[in-house]
Write a structure and sequence with these properties.
The chain is an alpha+beta fold. It is about 40% helix and about 25% strand. It contains six helices and six strands, in the order βααβααβαββαβ. The strands form two sheets. It has a four-stranded antiparallel sheet with strand order 4-5-3-6, covered by helices on one side. Helix 3 packs antiparallel against helix 4.
Length: about 170
């Protein structure tokens, strides 16, 4: 816990925002306000190249509503939580093409049975190979409360299922 500082500087705050994660803005915003709440007397400096970013604007104007409204609008347009549930399916194999092909077959099966589900991938994991196994992901965006249980019943036992994952890659 970081407490009782007189000055807190975020060098290159943009690196927190420019991450391949739909929650990046939220996490950066939370980090700033967590530090601010623990250091109420501190001065803050934020280095950025993007003063038009809604997180930066919200912080500089001390206007949380600006951040929330902007973030909800983006998530609604892109169909991200809270407007959907995300399920990450992971296939792993010693041979990369086998892991990828397994997800291609699963995606085809899901598309045939559940037309309203948005499917992204297969996507290479980051890192692509862990403990000798290549990993690929299939990201499903499902309307909250819909056919999740039905989808799970058609998946092979070796698929790793992560509902509302912390990371997409």
């Amino acid at each position: 816990s970081f407490k009782n500082f007189g000055l807190i500087a975020f060098v290159n705050f943009d690196q927190l925002l420019n991450v391949a994660d739909f929650r990046a803005n939220e996490k950066a915003y939370q980090l700033f306000y967590e530090l601010k709440s623990q250091n109420t007397a501190a001065d803050f400096i934020i280095q950025t190249n993007n003063t038009e970013n809604q997180v930066i604007k919200s912080i500089s104007q001390n206007n949380p509503a600006l951040f929330y409204e902007s973030e909800l609008k983006i998530r609604s347009e892109l169909n991200y939580p809270p407007f959907c549930q995300i399920i990450k399916l992971t296939s792993q194999n010693k041979i990369a093409k086998k892991a990828e092909n397994e997800l291609i077959k699963i995606a085809k099966k899901i598309k045939e049975k559940f037309q309203k589900i948005e499917i992204l991938g297969p996507l290479t994991s980051n890192p692509a190979k862990i403990r000798g196994l290549y990993k690929y992901h299939l990201i499903l965006k499902i309307k909250a409360g819909s056919e999740i249980k039905k989808i799970l019943t058609i998946l092979p036992d070796n698929i790793i299922i992560n509902v509302n994952p912390e990371r997409l890659t």
